[in-house]
Fold this sequence. Notes:
Keywords: ATP-binding, Kinase, Nucleotide-binding, Serine/threonine-protein kinase, Transferase. Belongs to the protein kinase superfamily. InterPro entries: Kinase-like_dom_sf (IPR011009), Plant_MAPKKK (IPR052751), Prot_kinase_dom (IPR000719), Protein_kinase_ATP_BS (IPR017441), Ser/Thr_kinase_AS (IPR008271). This is Protein kinase domain-containing protein. Pfam families: Pkinase (PF00069). By secondary structure, this protein is of the alpha+beta class. It has 2 domains: about 5-85, Phosphorylase Kinase, domain 1, CATH 3.30.200.20; about 95-365, Transferase(Phosphotransferase), domain 1 (Orthogonal Bundle), CATH 1.10.510.10. The protein is built from 9 helices and 12 strands. It has helices spanning about 45-55, 95-100, 105-125, 185-190, 195-210, 220-230, 245-250, 265, 345-355, and strands at about 5-10, 15-20, 35-40, 65-75, 80-85, 130, 140, 150, 160, 275-280, 280-285, 370. The chain has a 6-stranded antiparallel beta sheet, with helices on one face. Strand 4 and strand 5 form a beta hairpin. The chain is globular. It starts with a strand and ends with a strand. Residues about 275-345 have low confidence and may be disordered.
Amino acid sequence: xxxxxxxxxxxxxxxxxxxxxxxxxxxxxxxxxxxxxxxxxxxxxxxxxxxxxxxxxxxxxxxxxxxxxxxxxxxxxxxxxxxxxxxxxxxxxxxxxxxxxxxxxxxxxxxxxxxxxxxxxxxxxxxxxxxxxxxxxxxxxxxxxxxxxxxxxxxxxxxxxxxxxxxxxxxxxxxxxxxxxxxxxxxxxxxxxxxxxxxxxxxxxxxxxxxxxxxxxxxxxxxxxxxxxxxxxxxxxxxxxxxxxxxxxxxxxxxxxxxxxxxxxxxxxxxxxxxxxxxxxxxxxxxxxxxxxxxxxxxxxxxxxxxxxxxxxxxxxxxxxxxxxxxxxxxxxxxxxxxxxxxxxxxxxxxxxxxxxxxxxxxxxxxxxxxx
Length: 372
């Protein structure tokens, strides 16, 4: 597809994000505005990986659409690799909450959580793990009936069951994703499988409900890893949530990944059964009637079937700038990989070597700058 590069709406250490529009010669099948993520062709391994993952996943209403990739020769002879993505006029969910300056209402949390879970269920059913679920990677698409959200940024995604070259008990420790959203098994055993996405989703729900990260705004890096990996503690459950919401989070925060509910099971949880509540009165149930009752224990695993999400149309909305860039309170960059000696026998030893002694920069990640 021929396209025209517009103004820059974000940049980072290895990539830039611009607005893009199809050339006049293109068919009307493409949206009038897109986002193009670009980087030097010689440094494009991560971006090419993201494109390949999106190609293998195919289209789903719960994940950002990809319209293709291309190589372009820029001024000065520089060759850029570009990935054309769906443009989110509302920016990221983290940006949206920051501009509001307050937590989301529970009906909004339920609606967004359902959309994210439908996307995760699709990703997991295709044999992939996202590995970096967080509000900064959830894009907001304004529409008439309320904002819709989709999962974006698949640069760290992996095949389920696929062992990292640097991971495993014999090869050291790989830090994949954002530490404040990491699951206990990721800290302890280098395990990045579908249950770790569910744990991260729980952290995202807490952040939607409180307006702050699940583990607090500025936790000590080493202490946080101990809390996540070695202790029995889980993120604090927001008191303002309904009992169903609290129970939903407990299913996300099961320390044992084998006991944690799957995305498909969580789609049938009563917390997501109600679309909106006004003045403590149930307005309506926007989901189809459940074919089976909500699972109450893990023996119900095989009987839990999610409701298929319906396709939504692309809404261009207003042309306010947005991007898929990162700006999160993490103490390590997403793509950092730290090696730990293979003979480290205890969880505490691994965490001690993983955690940095330097004071983290909680304002930016990977140098991304939000452009308003």
